[in-house]
Amino acid sequence: MIAIIDYDAGNIRSVEKALLFLGEDAVITSDRETILKSDAAILPGVGAFGDAMKRLTDRGIDKVIYEFVETGKPFLGICLGLQLLFRESEESPGVPGLGLLDGAIHKIPSQNDAGETFKVPQIGWNDIDINPESKLFQGIEGKPYVYFVHSFYLKADNPKEVAATTEYSLSIDAAVEKGNIMATQFHPEKSSEVGLKILKNFINMSKKGGKN
Fold first, then answer.
1. What is the mean pLDDT of each run of 10 residues along the chain (212 residues)?
2. pLDDT at position 212
3. Residue 141: other Cβ atoms inside 10 A
4. Is the separation of the CB atoms in 41 and 76 below 8 Å?
5. Contact 44, 81 (CB under 8 A)
6. How far apart are CA 92 and CA 145, in angstroms?
7. Distance CA 4, CA 124 (A)
């Protein structure tokens, strides 16, 4: 069973539907015991960094996330769920993130170094460059297109933890992996067959206790 962590931050049902489509048991929950007993956990989310962190801390879910990660079982952040795993975001100055991964979240520039303009937020499909050693992207070749909706982007401290990048006014770290912690800035549950393959890889890791 995979726990989808509920903290009123959106896109919960679409993640659940994707997992059910793949034949996986999924439960939407904020209950500590249910989350800790699950084979894997997903932290989804859309909205503002500061508001989301307040919901997590007010409900004590931040502590449950730390406990779950310590078990070594697979943990996946999606969109805002990726951003919350890092220490800070320009969106909410002074609000600490979960700090499980090293890096920071920055505002996407509306113009690149060549003077070209870009719409912010980035909404739509974009291709990604995959780290061939990534567990999350096993069996996915080339530069697949995935679906993004975001105004802020990750710059990870450790390039070795970057599982995929994309270009949108600058180079963006689109996915990360560190041990049992994985995260995508894009929405795999909305990324057609490629996204379902990513989620299937995550499910398979949960069947192996996170080992690949």
1. 91 92 96 98 94 96 98 98 97 97 97 94 97 96 97 97 97 98 98 98 85 42
2. 41
3. 8
4. yes
5. yes
6. 29
7. 24
Give 41's DSSP letter: E
Exposed (0-12), middle (13-18) or buried (19+): which is 94, by Cβ within 10 Å?
Answer: exposed
What string of DSSP letters covers 68-136?
HHHTT--EEEETHHHHTTSS-BTTSTT-----SSSEEEEEPPSB-TTS-B--SSEEEEEE-EEPTT-ST
The residues annotated with a catalytic role in the active site are 79, 187, 189
Q: By CB neighbour count within 10 A (0-12 exposed, 13-18 middle, 19+ buried), where does 68 fall?
A: buried
Determine the Cα–Cα distance for residues 89 and 75; give it in Å rounded to an integer. 21
